[in-house]
Amino acid sequence: MSEERYVIGVDVGTGSARAGIFDARGALLSSATEPIEMWKPRPDHVEQSSQDIWRAVSQVVRQCREEAGVEASRVAGISFDATCSLVVLDERGQPLPVNEEGAAERDIIVWMDHRALRETEEINAGEHEVLRYVGGRLSPEMETPKLKWLKEHLPQTWSKAGKFFDLADYLTWRSSGMDARSLCTVVCKWTYLGHEGKGGKWDKKYFKKIGLSDVFEGDKIGSDVRPMGTKLGPLSLEAARDLGLTTNCAVGIGIIDAHAGGLGLLGAVWQGRDDTPLDELESVLALIGGTSNCHMAVSHKPRFIPGVWGPYFGAMVPGLWLNEGGQSAAGGAIDHAIASHPNAPALNEQAKKQKKTVYELLNAEVARLQKESGRGPEITRDFHVLPDFLGNRSPHADPHARGVFDGITLDNSLSSHALHYYATLQAVAYGTRDIIAAMNDEGYNIKTMMVTGGGIKNPLWVQEHADATGCTLILPEQPEAVLLGSAVLAATAAGLYPDIYRAMQGMSRAGATVKPRRETAAYHKAKFKIFRAMYKEQRRRRAAMENF
Q1: Which of 279, 281, 296, 454 is the most exposed place for a label (fewest CB within 10 A)?
Q2: 296-309 residue pLDDT tens
Q3: pLDDT value of position 372
């Protein structure tokens, strides 16, 4: 009998690198996490180090395999997902500074960095054809505005640059030595037209109009674009040594982190079936929650939805168009509401003493207030939140939007703290409702969400998202759905499955189901109306003050 083979999925998020080792049926044997460094030298500037990230990746890959007791020779494949951060290297593959301090080790502009707001607005004003495929407007979180900022502000870095990578593509290059880009990364973040011709194409006229035609000199942004899960090659000898694996391990083309979560979730739609009908994916939304939230929906036909990214062809599920909504601040907004309240120091001290999380303590206080008042979610009726602390990604594509708290008093108690937290949690859920409404207005019929991320560990977060959106939530059997999505790509690259569809089906399974409570629907409808009105009012105020 042949030995069982395993695959490793690697996820590089905003604050850490993680790796998980899976068997061919999608069972997680072991996982490991390692923090990564981040620098914020000035407002809206967020930077990381590719060398530090590779160090962390090497550590977690070794650790998860060793803890699982799996021999290196039995790891058949590895693939990577990562945030859509921009890596800048010279012609020798060495780091270049993306900062005015000249610190070369800080060679990554992180996805959430908003330094390129002006450049984003300049590009959007050009009404370029490619913008039709990003929801009508670029975001400063995408790569061409960041490239334009680099060229204009750091000419020395620009003149020395040899490679510009999306972070997932950097990791596959570092692993294999092969410079091939993921269809996912370049379609979603670089304006590559994946639906044009055979395998897609770059619109070089667009790059010329925005002053970036020189990125094609020396193949700086890549000309070899391949679908996710394609076998790129074996691990290089150097990478195998770093990762504690062998050169018999296949490297699969990678993917953006949220999209990996979509792959890890959506395969459960076909659970218990012999076939994989793609039509069944069109009524389901994959919600990948974290510091930010991503909302992934796929369809056979392209759907042009203002303020929602895409349609992107083949960027998550092969052969289907992807629309991607998002909230730049989601878990980050909730954490900000908790940390900014005057009671935060006392709450942190209480959590330490009781060996509980701040979420557990706040959830308990919410439950107490509800029981005492005889109300449910209605306890937030006098407190309203607009959680756009980092702008609005969808459905308004408004990077200038800001957060609003309406109903603040001088009360610094735990009860007040709990209401701030609870109302912000609800507001994040209303943001998802707003995105789903925009998608459904353009032809989707989303009534079910398959959800992963840190939020699913919080029962209050889960129930409020079901209630506030009116959708049934399906949680994954394997909560590490993002890691699983990368493992799906690794298994496809290693030949354990014939294609991504079969790998999704074979490795993903559904867990618990949470339904919306009918008795809360009227309250959330009223609160959602106020949520939308708050954004409109903020737009009116900004317009009134724009000349000052």
Answers
A1: 279
A2: 999 999 999 999 99
A3: 97
pTM (2 d.p.): 0.90
Give residues with Cβ within 8 angstroms of 526, minimum separation 6: none
DSSP3 helix / strand / coil % (the chain, rounded to 5): 45, 20, 35
Q: Using alpha carbons, list the distances in angstroms from residue 162 to 47, 165, 253.
A: 19, 10, 21
DSSP 225-278: EE-TT-EEEEPPHHHHHHHT--TTSEEEEEEEHHHHHHHHHHGGGGTT-SS--G
How far, in Å, CA of 359 to CA of 339, rounded?
12
Is residue 436 classed exposed, middle or buried when 0-12, 13-18 and 19+ CB atoms within 10 A define those classes?
Answer: buried
Segment 40-54 mean pLDDT: 97
pLDDT digits (tens, 9 = 90+) for 112-127: 999 999 999 999 999 8
Alpha carbon distance 190, 196 (integer Å): 15
Q: What is the overall mean pLDDT for the chain?
A: 96
DSSP 495: T
Q: Is the Cβ–Cβ distance between 108 and 47 less than 8 Å?
A: yes
CB 452 within 8 A of CB 264: yes
How far apart are alpha carbons 201 and 220 in whole angstroms?
Answer: 15
Joined together, the tokens standing for residue 247 give 């050169």
User: In angstroms, rounded to a whole number, what is the distance separating the alpha carbons of residues 172 and 243?
Assistant: 13
Among all chains, which residue has been given the structure tokens 């913008």? Answer: 131
What's the N-to-C CA distance of the chain in angstroms? 76
Distance of alpha carbon 114 from alpha carbon 356, whole angstroms? 34
- From residue 197, alpha-carbon distances to 132, 200, 202, 227, 466 in Å are 18, 5, 11, 14, 41
DSSP-assigned letters across all residues of 188-211: HHS--BTTSTTT-B--HHHHHHTT
Q: What is the pLDDT of residue 168?
A: 98
